[in-house]
Amino acid sequence: MRDRPDDRGGAGRPALASAVVSSALALAVTDLRGQVLEANDAFARLLHLRPDQLTGGKVGDLLAAGAGQEDVLDLDRVVEDLLGGTPVVMADLLARRPDGSALRGQALCSLSHDGGTGAGAGPVLLLQVVDSDSTDRRRPGDHDALTRLRSRHAVVADLTARLRERSGLLGVIACDLDRFRVVNESLGHAVGDELLVGVARRLIAGVRGGDVVARLGDDEFVVVLTGLTDVAEAVDVAHRLTRHLGAPFEVDGPQQRREIRCAVSTGLVVVDLDAAGSPCPAAGGGAPPPLDAATLLRDANTALDAAKAAGGGCCRVFTGAMRERAIHRLTVENDLRRALERGELRVHYQPVVDLRDGHRSGFEALVRWAHPQRGLLLPGQFLDVAEECGLLPAVDAVVLEQALDFLARHPDVRVAVNTSARRLDGTFAADLARGLHRRGLPPGRLAVELLETSLASGDPIVERELLDLADLGVAVLLDDFGTGYSALSYLRRLPVTGLKLDGSFVADLPEDDSSDRIAAAVVSLAGSFGLSSICEGVETAAQAEHLAAQGWQSAQGFHFGVPAPEERWFPRPLAPTGGTPRAARVPT
Ligand code: C2E
Ligand code: CA
Ligand code: CA
What we know:
α7 packs antiparallel against α8 (189-206), α8 runs antiparallel to α9 (231-246) and α14 runs parallel beside α16 (460-472). By secondary structure, the protein is an alpha/beta fold. The model is unreliable at 1-12 and 579-588 (pLDDT under 50). An eight-stranded mixed beta barrel has the order 15-16-18-19-20-21-22-23, surrounded by five helices. A six-stranded antiparallel beta sheet has the order 2-1-6-5-4-3, sandwiched between helices. Helices cover 37% and strands 23% of the residues. The chain has three domains: 14-136, Beta-Lactamase (2-Layer Sandwich), CATH 3.30.450.20; 152-318, Reverse transcriptase/Diguanylate cyclase domain (Alpha-Beta Plaits), CATH 3.30.70.270; 342-569, TIM Barrel. It binds ligand C2E and calcium ion (CA) (2 copies).
């Protein structure tokens, strides 16, 4: 056995050893059986080890087999070739580092006969390892110009290569800044860019050696985790990154340096390549689709969407159930686009009754979807998807058109339509005015129902729309009142004309004391602001009597009538079947 020199650069170090230690290339000198005699820092870094951990190690142990046995360096063969006269042997390398991560690259091997390590006579093996990941990084297009991270195209290639290894756990973390657009719009793109560079730095600092960090575009980043021992390790990394990125960033503002707090959401998917790429934990969800880089990135993004839906600034792990939900959402979205084109949306009308004299004072228009396969769908089965994919304003527009036609057909009727805050985009009041004018309808027969939460944002465009609606003479009702947790100051500023008490406060009346007190407080609030008062979800005569006694003006609910098609309330005269026409049925 040769002794290994223990001075790493001291005086008197033989020439070869000194050259190895000072080189920027990843170099090692071994004996002919692969035992490390000298290795430099670059070599240690490549193996994700500290230099002292290489001492006495064997190259064969340090580089374990990666995908197939044939891809790990066969040192005996190399030495045989070199001793046989081949000056340099170059071998492809697909190996596993001691920490489990994959190392792809080439090994260049040659013999040195100068006994240069001071380890005595006889040839030694000079080994240079080139990491193809780091050389790839130098290819144009493989890195993002702003952050110098791997680009989308490069990370897709990385993932594809990792997937080919077919062994071990592979993790992908998708990260996205929660309010990046706001930073860009309010502080400018230079600050936005600085923030992105800050995020990139924190990602690099937060990952483990061997993990790959990439920027896909805008504020989308991904981290590829290899060499995982279990799913928990990946979850730890994802949580750590989420936490690190959530801390405030210092950036150059337009005038002075400022602190930006920009929460980051992360979505993690981990696949077990030994088990043919099933997601871990495989929480149901049927057979996974064939695994490729695009699928992995999409699954990580689905988990990211779940993190955002949970309020942002957190991490979610992809499950089969999420995939099901994503597929469901996509199906509903496609179907809904088709439904809008083909006119599959219907409007049902629920009567609103005046509690003082019991007469029907109007209707609320409620959307339904006559789905060709699934039958009549309620709003709860599709409006959330419509909202997520930006189709809600289109749905509202269809309902509004149908409701205006309904008003035109029934001269003494009033109708309230539900409108999402998104529809109040600066064009709503004008569109509404045109729709009313085209049909010669007085605006006072129409009411617009808005959620309390849509006013709380203080958005000037929304507020302008409300003032325009008031000028027009259209009533504005605050829907689901009492559930929005918002300050009521807007009641002083904005031309709201009525409050609709949410049905949840009616359900336990008349027995429940706190519901009773809330209902009493809201009706008194409406009275003191001169607003109309409507309660929803009235299901029993006892509730109706109780609310009437409290002073509520009107009510709707199953007690008075369920939402139903127009014909239920205005039956069409039956077509004459020969003799005298039959009388129309009286509405009930
Ligand atoms: P909402 O505006 O609060 O409408 C009242 C909901 O309560 C309706 O549900 C109605 O069927 C239900 N309801 C009426 N009376 C009773 C009752 O006595 N007891 C109980 N338990 N429920 C009662 P629906 O039709 O399923 O609509 C659900 C929600 O979908 C609506 O709640 C509204 O927020 C939304 N929505 C419906 N149509 C539209 C629309 O055209 N546009 C928009 N943006 N949202 C709509
Ligand atoms: Ca409503
Ligand atoms: Ca409501």
